[in-house]
Amino acid sequence: MKISRMSSLKDKWILITGASSGFGAAAARAFGAEGARLLLGARRVDRLERVSIGARKAGAGEALFRELDVSKTASVEAFISWARKKIGSRGHLHVLINNAGGAHGLDTVAEGKDADWEAMIQSNVLGVLRMTRAALPLMPHDAGASIINIGSVAGHAAYEGGAAYCAAKAGELQITRALRLELLGTGIRVGTVDPGLAETEFSLVRFKGDAASAKKVYEGTRPLTAEDIAEILVWIASRPPHVNIDELIVKPVDQAAVGKVFRRKL
Ligand SMILES: NC(=O)c1ccc[n+]([C@@H]2O[C@H](COP(=O)([O-])OP(=O)(O)OC[C@H]3O[C@@H](n4cnc5c(N)ncnc54)[C@H](OP(=O)(O)O)[C@@H]3O)[C@@H](O)[C@H]2O)c1
Q1: Ligand 1 centroid to residue 183 C-alpha, Å
Q2: How far apart are CA 108 and CA 98, in angstroms?
Q3: Catalytic: 218?
């Protein structure tokens, strides 16, 4: 029996939000290595340029990039109209990866800041809704197209200081579930990948550039890498068209639960 059946991603258009670092940048290289054509968005265009060069070196047919802020409807719409032109009238968007997002602060509710709460809801929740609404008309029906959202273990379990982020990722999970119901019959696959502890710029952003606090999060433990998640995204998108990976929780072996992490003595 042949176990691995893959749908080819060669020359398929893949749109990745938050492609300037972490999971998104690694996904650009991983889909690039499959010969896909990439549309990359994030706010830091200089970083996107570097990611695009890396993705082309890895084998991407194209690795186009443009400034994108998923927290602003006008930016999302401008990005999608640019994407529509790049894909051309006869092409289709094969995969949408809603990855842009992150955590801001680790304050309790009592100490929480409006700006942090608003940024988290804007990018992780409203950003997914806006991008999906705008991108859906570019997606073909019955051709194994996929929408893959990046959630988190934070959407499944609450932790102190994580109220708004956990709420945002629980929101992402429910958006994914509602969308799968809404798109039934179109053939468009909808899923969420929900990682645990992964070493990217995530903690640097959460602690507002405080590198020492960010480093402490991963001290003595072996977290996931961005490449671990990128490989899984490629695997999901390359399943046969009738297979939908609904929800995938991915944690490092050293993390048994959100707040239960094994740390070696240094
Ligand atoms: N690392 C973890 O432990 C972990 C675990 C579970 C889930 N996640 C989730 O995984 C996703 C990727 O995070 P990461 O770990 O790869 O962290 P990262 O290295 O900080 O990457 C976050 C990406 O999102 C982009 N982004 C943030 N806000 C944006 C906005 N308003 N508009 C457009 N792009 C935006 C950033 O780009 P710009 O700043 O250039 O815009 C960056 O490319 C996030 O949704 C995060 O919540 C991470």
Answers
A1: 26
A2: 27
A3: no
In this predicted model, what pLDDT tens digit does every residue of 98-147 receive, in sequence order? Answer: 999 999 999 999 999 999 999 999 999 999 999 999 999 999 998 899 99
| Residue 149 in contact with ligand 1 by CB distance below 6 A | no
For residue 257, how far is the Cα from the chain centroid? Answer: 21
- pLDDT score of 5: 60
pLDDT digits (tens, 9 = 90+) for 237-250: 999 999 999 999 99
Answer whether 162 contacts ligand 1 (Cβ < 6 A).
Answer: no
Q: What is the largest CA-CA distance in the chain?
A: 58
- Annotated active-site residue in 13, 79, 165, 202: 165
Residue 7 has pLDDT above 90, yes or no: no
Q: Is the CB of 32 under 6 A from ligand 1?
A: no
181 is written with which tokens? 């119901």
| Amino acid at residue number 142 | D
